What we know:
This protein is mainly beta and 177 residues long. Helix content is 0%, strand content 44%. The chain folds into 2 domains: 3-64; 76-168, Immunoglobulins (Immunoglobulin-like, Sandwich), CATH 2.60.40. The protein is rod-shaped and about 105 Å long. The protein starts with a strand and ends in a 9-residue tail after the last strand.
Amino acid sequence: xxxxxxxxxxxxxxxxxxxxxxxxxxxxxxxxxxxxxxxxxxxxxxxxxxxxxxxxxxxxxxxxxxxxxxxxxxxxxxxxxxxxxxxxxxxxxxxxxxxxxxxxxxxxxxxxxxxxxxxxxxxxxxxxxxxxxxxxxxxxxxxxxxxxxxxxxxxxxxxxxxxxxxxxxxxxxxxxx
Length: 177
């Protein structure tokens, strides 16, 4: 055996020309430097060659080109509750971007409809683990509206901020009138 040739094709392609040639039989892997598209399935064929010629291509394997991992999506589907000076919340797990979520961060501030995210100067809760899908914020001023956002993180970075949710810390009822 002098070498191998590897060929590949997509379901929409009809060009089976050899794309990786002269692979040493001692090599146990080959790298494809072409424009492989993420999320596309490729059919790979292989042929063996020696000094007398090459065999016919043999269908070897189909492979789905994986998406490159990245940051997770922002958490969503908020549910909030309030009890006096405490706000509680939980959310659904976002798409992890191809890598497990490692933590969440929660930011909150008094709500100001005129403030933009450029002016966002929030308070932060302690980071939460990936298993913590709910938390509470305590010590809030009763009757005050607060804006809350959450970020998810994995080894590739932090998500963009979730949509903000505004909630009013519950007001203790006053004496009967």
